[in-house]
Design goal:
The structure is a single chain. With about 425 residues, the chain is an alpha/beta fold. It folds into 2 domains: about 70 residues, Elongation Factor Tu (Ef-tu), domain 3 (Beta Barrel); about 260 residues, Rossmann fold. It has 9 helices and 19 strands. Strands 9, 11, 12, 13, 14, 15, 16, 17, 18 and 19 form a 10-stranded mixed β-sheet that branches. Strands 1-7-4-5-6-3-2 form a 7-stranded antiparallel β-sheet, with no helix packed on it. The protein has a two-stranded antiparallel ribbon with strand order 8-10. α2 packs parallel to α3, α6 packs across α7 and α8 crosses α9. The relative contact order is 0.13.
């Protein structure tokens, strides 16, 4: 829109820490605006009263600030030039490189029509045995990591990004510390994997509300490569708890009545519109989503993981293993609801039998632990199960184990000599 013909408003009727409101006409939902020189977005329309969320906050904005509506929602320029680049929440380069030249596309659009979806049936090897053996990832799947805030979930996400057998990796980082951001950047550069990785980053130094743009930016880029280029795309989102916190900030400043755990009543829909972008297309292009949801004191009943569990197709649960001192993919609390679509079909025929036997023996080891703690004598079988559990956790479940889905380890190792 030509700025010479844009109407300028100069009367704000309300100002909160995250939003402003004014009277205006001819405005649409999600439309961008500039308020006192700061980028904003329409989040509510009630009659002619428009509420705008200010991405960088409202501090210092006067009641007579100039407001100009831009006539369009947020967009991202998409092309092959995105590969190997780092961007902020607005899609601007963070790496000192040039701006992207390409087609401008609206972010946050609808998910793929169910009629055009195909049942997921392609394997995505991650190189992390605890996933590939017990919770095999399928293209088009949506699945979260549940983890305590002090667990190394960023390491796991970086490992998946480097090892996963896909065409493109798109990282959406929300609320990352600068150390986390540099960690991802250095890991990707050292691994020589930048040619297939695209990153959209919001750090703790950026306003929290900017996090709301990151998943839509990442998924718009994913849709370009999956739909237009027929590529297999894996989207990694960290941390969705911080994304939900940003939703709560805006909701509270709009005086909306909070729901469970102070989250907005729209939380389910807000999360679903992101996760439902996961899709297997008839053209073999696909979008698979792995997201991190950090837990508050391990509380899986909190509104964020609770709603996430209803939307997604399983979960990957990180846990510190007391026997080995390692962080593992918990085989009991983790679940992939689509793994049966590829196990024994895209992997070795006895995959399911190996998985079931391994988990059963691990469960018997936990029973033996309970007997030991209660002062009961252990059988020879119990002792063997306890020894097995340590090997199983150390050589297969630990997040630092890197085994390909077809690799056969040396026969002297009784646990990991079974190919996944």
């Amino acid at each position: 829109m030509n700025k010479a013909y844009q109407k300028v408003y100069t009367k704000l009727e309300g100002i909160t820490k995250a939003t402003v409101s004014l009277r205006a006409k001819g405005v649409s939902n999600d439309e961008l605006a500039v308020v006192g020189g700061r980028l904003a977005q329409v989040v509510r329309i009630k009659g002619d009263v428009i509420t705008l969320q200010i991405f960088s906050g409202t501090e210092g904005i006067p009641s007579n600030a100039e407001v100009t509506f831009l006539g369009e929602p947020p967009t991202l320029k998409v092309s092959d030039q995105l590969a190997g680049r780092f961007f902020d929440a607005y899609g601007h380069p963070l790496d000192g490189g040039p701006e992207i030249e390409g087609e401008e596309r609206q972010i946050g659009g609808p998910s793929v029509n169910p009629y055009k979806r195909r049942q997921p049936s392609q394997l995505i090897p991650t190189g992390i045995a605890g996933i590939d053996l017990n919770n095999t990832l399928v293209s088009g799947q949506k699945i979260p990591f549940f983890a305590d805030p002090d667990q190394p979930y960023n390491q796991v996400m970086a490992d998946v990004a480097i090892r996963a057998d896909v065409d493109k990796i798109i990282l959406g980082g929300m609320g990352l510390t600068n150390d986390d951001y540099l960690y991802f950047r250095h890991r990707f550069e050292e691994a020589g994997a930048l040619d297939k990785i695209i990153c959209f980053i919001n750090t703790t130094e950026n306003p929290p509300v900017e996090r709301l743009l990151v998943p839509d930016m990442a998924l718009t880029a994913a849709e370009y490569f999956a739909v237009d280029k027929n590529e297999k795309v894996l989207v990694l989102l960290t941390d969705m708890t911080l994304y939900a916190d940003a939703l709560s900030i805006v909701s509270n400043r709009m005086d909306q009545i909070p729901s469970k755990d102070s989250m907005p009543g729209s939380l389910y829909s807000d999360l679903a519109k992101i996760y439902e972008k996961a899709v297997q297309l008839p053209t073999d292009g696909s979008i698979t989503i792995i997201a991190v949801t950090t837990l508050n004191d391990g509380d899986i009943t909190h509104a964020i993981p609770d709603n996430t569990g209803y939307i997604t197709e399983g979960q990957l649960f990180l846990r510190a293993d007391s026997d080995t001192g390692k962080v593992i993919i918990d085989p009991f609390r983790s679940l992939s609801r689509l793994k049966q679509l590829v196990q024994g079909k895209k992997t070795r025929e006895d995959h399911s039998q190996v998985m079931n036997a391994s988990v059963r023996l691990y469960a018997d080891a936990q029973n033996a632990k309970t007997k030991l703690e209660n002062g009961f004598d252990l059988s020879d079988y119990d002792h063997r199960c306890l020894a097995y559990a340590k090997d199983y956790a150390r050589e297969l479940l630990a997040i630092d184990v890197n085994i390909t889905i077809t690799e056969i380890s040396p026969p002297q190792k009784p646990v990991s000599n079974r190919p996944l």
